[in-house]
Amino acid sequence: MKLTGQRAKYLALLLLCVVCVQADFVEPPQLATALRSFAESQTRLPCHYQVEEGEKVVQVTWYKDLPDGSKDQIITAHFVDGHTEFGRYSGRVRFESASPTVNSALLIPSTEESDKGSYTCHISTFPNGNFERHITLTVWILPISSLDPVLLVEGQSFRVAASCRAVGRPPPRLTWDTDLPGQFQERSQEGGSVSSYYSLHPLRSMNGKKLDCLVWHPGLEQPRRISYSLVVQYPPDAAITSTTGDWYVGMKNAELTCSGGGYPKPQNITWTWKGEALPDGVSEVGEKLVFGRALHMNDSGVYKCVLRNEVAAGSAEYTVTMTETSKRQGETTIDNLLLIIIGASAGALVLVLVMVVLLVNRYHRHKNKKLEIELNEKTEEIQSFSRQASFRRLNSVSTDPRLQSEDYSLLRVDSRIKSSDISLERPIYRGSQSTLGGKWGPSEVVEVDELGRPVVWNNGQESLRGAELEEEERMRRVESYVKNSNMSLDSGLPSSLVPLKAQQDEGVGPIKPDTALPREGDSPQGVREDWPPPPVAEGHDEEVDNSSYHISEALNNHFYYRNGVLRPKPHSNAILLHPRGQII
Known about the structure:
This protein is of the alpha+beta class. The protein has four domains: 23-140, Immunoglobulins (Immunoglobulin-like, Sandwich); 150-233, Sandwich (Immunoglobulin-like); 240-320, Immunoglobulins (Immunoglobulin-like); 396-568, no CATH class. It is built from six helices and 30 strands. β10 and β11 (129-149) form a beta hairpin.
């Protein structure tokens, strides 16, 4: 029991020491660390002890653990005597820092496979004693790979086409990337060497196909590819071709060509004629047999070419049969005749098409010309009619638009008379004012509007003088119009006042022309032949009397009164105008 308690105390003290030691190292922080490196590259073994206050590193020593349990000293650094390298490590290792007692990391510039193993960093301090760190180093060797092709020949048995080898640590893995039908076999050897063999049955169709080897290793980010194209040799297949199949006497520039496949490409070509040498004037130019002269009848026979490559030889024969004349002459004559017939037919068709196009073009031009003549005639007719209508308008319409409007309105008094209380049967005049009705006394002055109608609603005496002046001005305009007009007044009347056409009166059916109407110069029936001169009121001058007289005379010469309607006298040269200005 006492021994067991002492052992427990020793273990507790050891754990406490370990915790204290772990707290004193900056790197590596763990007591045991595993590292991995590659051969022929630099390897760093970390060891950095952090001293406490009042503590000092006296010596640093690196050891390598041997398989038998002993240690092999590599290098030592003393704070006074400097550093020392030992044995086979001399010149192969060094401290990373110039102050090994501060930073004790060890560098191996060129790592070898033999450098793998366990390393110990031993730190001696004062006054706290010794401290250690253990590091296990694994050395990887990147694979060294190669591919060895095998020469194949068509017709050989199933065999190895290529072999791929790789050496590395850890041992690599090999695969094949190809579309060729075959099998592969892998073999491993000591020292990390791996080999793979790809076997197949060689065919000429496999020549040039891809057969790549892939090398896989943990030290590689992606597999290493070794590219290779399979090589399969096979003999040539000779064949003879001719530029023409018709051989006749006198033919020039005749040739025969000997061609064939094979791998590698044939370099040796031999020509023979009937198993003997070629005739005179015939020579070999590469793959061709050229006749440098016109053919003779005795050039007939069997021509043979032989092609050779590294595998075997291939041959072909061609029989030449000479004729006196060309077989194609008759065929040429027939072909020429057919070409002539086809060309003539095409020419005739083209000629017919051209004639049709010309006739159609001529027809359309003639039709267009005829239409143009008719259009010109119609245009001239319309223009002539327009000029006549314009002349008639000029003779029938006053140049003063205001007079035209007032006179036209005056001539339509028949529709106004029906709606007024004026009667033409008893005209009463007072001075220069004309009252068309007899309802007003002689002493009463009536105001009229712009159409000469009395204003029945205006009975005031204040505007009598103004009305007289307006009526006087209006009568002057009418007189001027009558004197200056070269037309018959009936030309400006609406169609409702013309008795010569069948018109539709207001509320009445069509009116037949009156056969009893008087001719020009005669007094129509029911017309008041004697229009009484307007009486002149006292106080007016002679000019007013003349105006009233002319108006009365114009009414007697151009109008007659019938059935309560003022109608124009018929005239042979009269131009009838529609109320909207259209020529009837």
